Amino acid sequence: MVVAARKITVQLPDSVYERIEQRALEAHRSVEAEIVDTVAAAVTPPKLSSDLLEAVEGLEVLDDEALWRAVRLRVPEEVSARVEDLNWKRQSTGLEAREEEELSRLLQLYERTMVVRAEAARLLHQRGHEVLPALLGE
């Protein structure tokens, strides 16, 4: 199968080229192949689970004020602290089945929150707003 391709010339800073060259060497690939895969990964949207798709469904119809509230969503501090505790316990002694389930549930909440924030930010950016300060908590 022949894939249509376009040839372009891009000037990369030395530091970027050197990192790509090193990755290519480690993977026993050409620099060109490494660059193509890197660019392809950067422009391919991630596939979301049905749960996460449901979480962002309908955000596009919200007004800017509602989207700004979504961008500022945070996982409650007690949830973050519990995830950290469970992760430490997992690494040191391991988790019981109920703790694994709890950690999985909490990580799903965290992921859902982050996906909603990201999609709301994308929509606001698309509408011409500067969203980076809000994402950084400024």
Structural account:
The structure is a single chain. This protein has 138 residues and is mostly helical. The protein contains seven helices and no strands. The longest helix has 30 residues, at 97-126. The relative contact order is 0.10.
Radius of gyration: 20 Å
Q: Label the overall shape.
A: extended
Average the pLDDT over all residues and give the rounded result: 89
Main sheet specs: none
Number of helices: 7
DSSP strand content: under 5%
Task: Say how many strands there are.
Answer: 0
Element pattern in H and E: HHHHHHH
Oligomer: single chain
Query: Which regions have little confidence, pLDDT < 50, spanning 5+ residues?
Result: none
Distance between the termini: 50 Å
Share of residues in helices: 55-70%
Broad structural category: mainly alpha
